[in-house]
Amino acid sequence: MKRSPTHTRRLLLVAGAVLTITPSLTPLRAQGPGIFDAFAARKDSPSDPVFGGLGLTGYSGIFGLRVSGALNFNGGSDNTSQSGSPQYYRCDRYQCRGYRTSNYSYDDGWGLGIGGWSVDADLLIAPFRTLPYMKALLLGFSPYGFVGIGGAGSNPTNAADTSRGTWSYGVGVHHDLIGWLGITGEARTRRSLHTSAINIGSSRNWEYRAGLSISFGGSPASMPGQGLAGINVPSEQTLVNRFETAESASRITARVLDRAEEFVDTPYRSGSTNPSIGFDAAGFVQYVFAKEGIALPRTSHAIAELGEEISTRIGSLRPGDLLFFSNDGLHIDHVAIYAGHERIIHATASGGAVRYDVLGEGPRGEWFADHLVTARRLVAEGRALPGVRRDDGRDEGELDSPDHAPRVRTREE
């Protein structure tokens, strides 16, 4: 039974209503980088066949590459026949008979006919695919455009093959339904490879495709604490936890700085971690942080593998961050604790003891500012941060060299 245009429009309206309310019923998930889809396609003409096909798409960001193919099948016995004018006559003594030659069939002899085919390789661009908030504003729809090359044709068994190479372009839209399942609709117009003109044409020139898609290779963008389309909506408890962990980190940092200040004027002693006899630079930092339950390696270059790397600009530093210095500009061999207001507290050989210095102030401060190579944050959200091991060519057990900053003048000098 042939559907009327009115009946088709009603089905489209119902489908549109379902798609509109779907985002409010289920949280949206991010499309995976791979999409497999099964589709049906046809042109806007009752005489054009319906194609069924499969496609595979791979995305990188907003760009994708898709390959797809489709076939039209018929039952083989349902032959398509046409009659034309008699092509020749055959006469005997009683009469002349005309024979027509324009009848043809798609029957391939197996009871199943292939009435047409198409293959395409398309380059896609989906500008909102990686922007969940834009998809939310569009009620879950993700529009895209594409351009591609391929081929298409009909394939009757006893008539000329109409296969031809084509290039095509069009637009489409994808909608996530539930999890990895989605639907796709698009419109495409084909042009012969020998034609370079871009022409919109009438609706009969366009091929319309609708299909179901399965995304794979990605992870859900909507996790606990997230709302529609993966937009973060922190709960009250989440905000409380973040406040408590930030407060905990501040308390740890304050205790580290208070304990470090207790050892001001403790003598510098190379290779020592004993406050009774003195510290070297890494020994001092290791001892102070150990009192807060944070175990650190024995050398500055090993400590520099821990935590999170941050900018060495003064505005990026927080009290409690560790600053690392190099005598030769290549190998880290000194560490200090940032105390705020451009001050550092450290066990320094050139200073003779644990003391404060101000970055950029005086000859010593200028030396440390010039030889600062990196900064690390060891404590955040109330916990010690993990690190990434780096190999600077030094032996793990090799102790740090004394710093070469200008020496502190004593009263006797």
What does this structure look like?
It is a single chain. The protein folds into 2 domains: 5-74 and 111-230, Porin (Beta Barrel), CATH 2.40.160.20; 236-384, endopeptidase fold (from Nostoc punctiforme) (Alpha-Beta Complex). The strands form 5 sheets. The chain has an 8-stranded antiparallel beta barrel. It has a 6-stranded antiparallel sheet with strand order 13-18-14-15-16-17, with helices on both faces. It has a two-stranded antiparallel ribbon with strand order 4-5. The protein is built from 6 helices and 20 strands. It is rod-shaped and about 135 Å long. The protein has helices spanning 5-25, 132-137, 236-262, 281-290, 300-303, 362-370, and strands at residues 34-43, 51-60, 63-74, 88-91, 96-99, 113-125, 141-154, 164-178, 181-192, 206-216, 273-274, 278-279, 308-310, 322-325, 334-340, 343-348, 353-358, 372-377, 379-380, 383-384. Residues 1-5, 17-30, 77-86, 101-108, 219-244 and 387-393 have low confidence and may be disordered. The protein is of the alpha+beta class and 413 residues long.
